[in-house]
Fold these 2 entries.
Entry 1:
Amino acid sequence: MKNKFSKIVISALLVSSSIMADDSVISYSYDGAYSFVAIESLAGRLDVEGPTSIDKYNMYGGGVKIGAQTDSYKIYLNANYYDADGFDYMATYGVGLQYMFKFSKVMNAFLGVNTGMANMRFLKSVGTSRTISDPYIGGEAGLNLHLGDDLDLEIGARLLSIDATNTINGVTYTFDNMLTGYASINFKWKMD
């Protein structure tokens, strides 16, 4: 009985896999899907809490995004690099998901979530550097202006919560919230 059941299951799997492999039975393409690559320009602020005060550091930078989108959703990978006084380097790498609200033919609004890693080297005093490599979670909101069928201008704001702590010689610094405004040019093409 057990042997008969195994033969039936194996036969069913073989037949179903050959049917699933036939392109005429199931199509994996979606006409409303696009791939995209984006180049970003960023400006923002990072809060760093030291032993006596909370300092706000202005930062400027650029980044790239690659991903896919439909009429309602966008998913992407991104990498951003920032320049800020008091930092040797500052970078974030992550993944994001946006939901787009269509209210016009020329633009849509979006809300999104993102997560990833923040890497920084903070130079508070001569001879002392503080390095973090910690995860972040955040949200974003903005507008997509359609400049053509294959080109969008995305304007938005991101808030990243890092909550990373670095202690050296009993002195603790906490890297807290990073708020950035950005503009990006998104180059889109149809997915096959």
Note: Residues 29-190 form a domain with the Porin fold (CATH 2.40.160.20).
Entry 2:
Amino acid sequence: MSIFEIMGELINPGSMGKMDFKYNDQNIHQKFIPTRFAISMMIIGIVEYLFISQSNSYNNFGYIMKANAFLFIYLLISFKINIKPDYKNLGWIPFLINNPFKFSDNINRILVILNIFFMPGKYVSKNIVEFYKHLKIK
């Protein structure tokens, strides 16, 4: 962070996105819930296959447990976290050129990257929870 960024934020502060841990319930059509659950299970199966086949640890129970624990923690964090970057403050040419007088655009870019990182996990985990709720209703 340069002195220009500090002075620029003091004079004209930029808007920043936010992260919270509130659950936002989305309305999903009831007829799509089993299909989305099946797609989520295929994604988990592919990830499991890649974890196990790339390391040639078919019989290593400790490695399989670590990989599953990592996947579970990723899905749990993805389900709980809501990242909302401010897309209007990403730099001069959005995401390409840094604004040298503000550091809030750097924070928004980090939030965009985190949002992209957690998006697949959010899709999978929300579909699993929605399928569980769908089964409880019937």
Note: The mean pLDDT is 83.
